[in-house]
Amino acid sequence: MENKVFVRKLKKLEACTDAVEWVTEHGGAASDCWRDCQRGDWMAWLAAKTKSITRRQLVGALADCAALSLKYFEAEFPSDRRVRDCLEVCWSYSRGSATDKELAAAADASASAAYAAYAAASATDAASATDAAYAAAAYATDAAYATDAAYAAARDETLSQCAEIFRKAFPDLFKEPE
Hints:
- This protein is an all-alpha fold.
- The protein has 2 domains: about 5-50, no CATH class; about 55-170, no CATH class.
- It contains 10 helices and no strands.
- It has helices spanning about 5-10, 15-25, 30-35, 40-50, 55-65, 70-75, 80-95, 100-125, 135-140, 150-170.
- It is globular, with a radius of gyration of 17 Å.
- The two termini are about 15 Å apart.
- Mean pLDDT is about 80; it is low at about 120-145.
């Protein structure tokens, strides 16, 4: 899909302005943009809008992204297994061995853990934890920070890692037919 068509599609899907601007400035076809993008959160959003990707596939990729921040959560809350348990249910769900109901329950528990961790982090100005639920790719970027510069670097690195996860999970998402 050529760039102008891809930009129109993104606008029709109501993609964020930054993503549309990046694709426009990149100038490449959709497959080139997918290959070069370093924003895993944008890729997660687009994958969620793509009809060729199942919910189970998407949950698996999002869980892989969320797992990137698990070490920060567990370092701060070593006895709280809710986030790890949620990730395990997400991976089971992606393989077809967990139900929608089990996934929702795990996401609720994980969200409660993330909220509690965020509240504790805000009170102590410590690192924030992540919600391993649906928006995991975006939340995973908020893993830990000591300064604004360190936070930005950690965020950018995590987004880049998430982008690689999405490229690996969906390598042919925008591959042109031969």
